[in-house]
Design goal:
Largest sheet: 5 strands, mixed
Mean pLDDT: 85
């Protein structure tokens, strides 16, 4: 519905009726002021006039909605968002031509009358009847201002807007009463200032400063005579007099304003005629609103900031309170986003995965010790077009992400190892690690898990069979080793640790106590994984992720912001041991293609069932990052596929996500200090144990029962596909997924 200011665009008959009504109501209000509130013609009993002797504070200084600016950590612009595009300015920052033009066309006797101008109404009515149009309005600027305040407070709620603009006797009396009191409290200059800041000028521009920028790309203080007249003319009917879509009609209206200014003596007739002869010259600046306009691919981070604001109690006790602050706007939000890191993330994504590819990637970088999100991006851009999306693949569902997150594969194994070490298992722990084995019965925090379906788990290749020690099992990502580790220590220590590391499923639910979680069967988000791994880098201390550093309101006041919460999730020795193990993954294991050459780094690869997902999660002492590659709908098997212009026979975590991580981290850390890990000595197993692997029946498998029968067509028998982000496909005991990973 086109937005129109109060009192504008009425027919002659409507104006006549309005005149008669206003004249009568004016007498009622004046009479009412001289009477006790309860005796004002009994109106209070009808709910039309309450608190007749007091003006609401919001009429004196209405909380005008303005644009909010979102900045990166260095103060650079990320995006501008607003419910209503408005920049509040003082009268001294508004061109005198604009001040005179709006008064001339809307209320020429503004400085001579009170809140109600009966003489002006009579003159306007007569002039409009003669012209057959609506050359002059019938309401005073003060009355229009009062109505605009009511409309502003209604926001975008259609019911409240209808209530604020209803043409009832009680509403008119209330408006007129408030107009009289506003005149007494504020004075003419403040009313004019407030009016010019609150009124709607079309093209999403509220207030004269936004309108001047929208139509002429200049400040309101620099408006010329003809430009000011054009803007003043728009107010009566922004849709009808839109100079962008109907310049001819806008020119006629502008010239009406110019003539009115000459008639009341604001300009000479010669000045008005010269301005009339000047063609409209627009320099339209298109509206730029929302996270879709964010720079450096930061649209998803911008959207995450928005969701943090609407969900975190730091910004208000209720969702409604938080939404009201956000919609009012006028905020300057400085975020944690590091421009160097963000640019590096985007550059790496662009060089490795195309937005038109069948699969997508998401990358998130987090700073250990602070929880600050330093970079966040994905290959499908933020938008509504082909190969674009508004789903943020880096975060959980409640923050704008996918329904379930994405199964993480073997990147979950370091959590199992950390839990085992915390339980006293040595870093040299050896398990038989057969090529294939059934999921064992496992103790949980309450009752044991029992593999009722006989589901089995294999390693990536038949040549992978034990015994293995932890160091080599981690480097080669041996599935059965970690299943045996879970069987040994139970599931409770694992889930207790992941709880401390903030690891929840993408839908917000805690991890189920099933052995398959050891192989990354459940969907998690890249932000969750990057933040959890950051605890390893931070010697065991986990810090909740944060995106906002400060928020300042339009008047310069600071709002409280969410702070990171840091706690010791594991001992320093446990973290140091994991760091030592994961260094081996990038040095000589499955993550060699991800390894950084210029600084200490560690990480883990992961690939899930049917190669629907591939991960690399890694870190240095001062940066942690997670990279996911896969189909958002979990429908693309990454076999014989081209990604980023490169053919891949089979996608591995170290092969596609690994180089993305390497390049993103390299650029993000360029010029940044390169601290080293605290490591521990983990001796290699004795030589005879290594040679023992080739012995038939070794690895704990029962004699005569190898892990896989000759001629089996399915290389991964008994391993079900994990629930995807859309539906939640399940299998196995109590609806839990049986399998979750296929090797590195």
């Amino acid at each position: 519905m086109p937005k129109k200011r109060s009192g504008g665009g009425l027919t002659t008959t409507q104006q006549a009726a309005k005149f008669l009504g206003v004249a009568a109501l004016s007498g009622v209000v004046l009479a009412g002021i001289a009477l006790p509130a309860a005796g004002a013609l009994g109106l209070a009993t009808k709910g039309t006039v309450e608190g007749f002797d007091e003006i609401p504070a919001n009429l004196q200084t209405p909380p005008l909605s303005q644009r909010t600016t979102i900045l990166d950590s260095k103060g650079g612009m990320i995006a501008s968002v607003y419910s209503r595009d408005r920049t509040v300015v003082e009268l001294k920052d508004i061109s005198p031509y604009m001040q005179k033009a709006i008064v001339a066309i809307e209320d020429a006797r503004f400085y001579k009358h009170g809140a109600v101008d009966l003489k002006g109404i009579l003159r306007a009515l007569n002039r409009n009847v003669q012209s057959g149009g609506t050359a002059q309005g019938a309401s005073t600027l003060t009355q229009q201002y009062v109505k605009n305040v009511f409309v502003e407070e209604a926001g975008d709620d259609p019911d409240k807007v209808a209530q604020a603009t209803q043409q009832t006797l009680g509403r008119k009396i209330q408006e007129l009463k408030y107009a009289i009191q506003v005149e007494e409290k504020l004075g003419k200059k403040r009313i004019l200032t407030n009016y010019l800041n609150i009124t709607f000028f079309g093209q999403q521009a509220y207030g004269v400063e936004a309108a001047s920028q929208r139509y002429f790309s200049k400040s309101a203080k620099d408006l010329t005579l003809e430009e000011a007249a054009l803007l003043a003319g728009i107010v009566q009917s922004p849709s009808r007099y839109d100079p962008v879509n109907d310049p001819a009609e806008a020119t006629k209206r502008r010239n009406t304003v110019l003539q009115r200014m000459a008639d009341v003596g604001d300009v000479t007739q010669a000045e008005a005629d010269k301005a009339k002869a000047t063609p409209i010259k627009l320099r339209v600046k298109k509206p730029k609103n929302g996270c879709i306009t964010a720079v450096s691919g930061a649209g998803f981070f911008c959207d995450y900031v928005h969701n943090v604001f609407l969900t975190d109690p730091a910004f208000g006790k209720t969702k409604e309170d938080r939404a009201k602050i956000w919609n009012r706007g006028g905020l300057t939000i400085r975020t944690t986003l590091d421009p160097q890191s963000q640019q590096s993330v985007q550059a790496s994504i662009k060089s490795h995965v195309y937005k038109s590819d069948k699969v997508a990637t998401a990358v998130t970088l987090v700073q250990p010790g602070t929880g600050k999100i330093m970079g966040m991006g994905q290959s499908k851009p933020y938008g509504f077009g082909p190969n674009e999306t508004q789903y943020n693949y880096s975060v959980d569902k409640d923050m704008g992400g996918s329904n379930f997150g994405f199964p993480t594969g073997s990147t979950f194994k370091p959590f199992v190892a950390a839990a085992a070490i915390a339980q006293g298992k040595p870093a040299t722990q050896v398990y038989s690690s057969p090529y294939e084995m059934p999921y064992p019965s496992v103790q949980t925090c309450d009752k044991p898990y029992v593999n009722l379906d006989g589901a089995r788990v294999p390693n990536e290749d038949k040549s992978e069979h034990g015994p293995y020690a932890l160091k080599e099992a981690m480097a080669k990502s041996v599935n059965t080793y970690f299943i045996q580790m879970v069987e040994d220590i139970g599931l409770c220590p694992v889930t207790q640790l992941t709880d401390k590391l903030g690891v929840v499923q993408g839908n917000g639910e805690k991890l189920p106590q099933s052995p398959a979680i050891a192989l990354g069967s459940k969907g998690l988000s890249p932000l969750t994984m990057a933040s959890a791994y950051a605890a390893f880098a931070n010697r065991g201390t986990y810090c909740t992720p944060v995106a906002i550093e400060s928020v300042r309101t339009a008047d310069g006041a600071s709002l409280p912001v969410p702070k990171t919460s840091c706690s010791q999730a594991m001992t320093e020795t446990t973290a140091d041991t994991i760091n030592t193990l994961l260094r081996g993954v990038v040095d000589s294991g499955t993550g060699q293609e991800a390894g950084l050459t210029s600084r200490d780094n560690a990480g883990k690869t992961g690939t899930t069932d049917a190669r629907l997902n591939a991960w690399f999660v890694g870190y240095t002492p001062n940066m942690s990052g997670a990279v996911w590659v896969g189909s958002p709908t979990q429908s693309v098997k990454m076999v014989n596929i081209t990604i980023g212009g490169v053919y891949q026979a089979k996608v591995y975590g170290g092969q596609v996500p690994g180089p993305i991580w390497r390049d993103a981290m390299t650029g993000a850390l360029n010029g940044v200090a390169a601290p080293v890990f605290n490591t521990v000595n983990i001796p290699d197993p004795p030589r005879d144990e290594e040679e023992d692997r080739g012995r038939p029946g070794a690895g704990g498998a029962k004699p005569g029962k190898p892990g896989k029968k000759p001629g089996d067509k399915n290389p991964f028998p008994g391993v079900s596909v994990p629930p995807n982000m859309i539906g939640g496909n399940t299998g196995g005991h109590r609806g839990q997924t049986n399998g979750g990973t296929q090797g590195p």
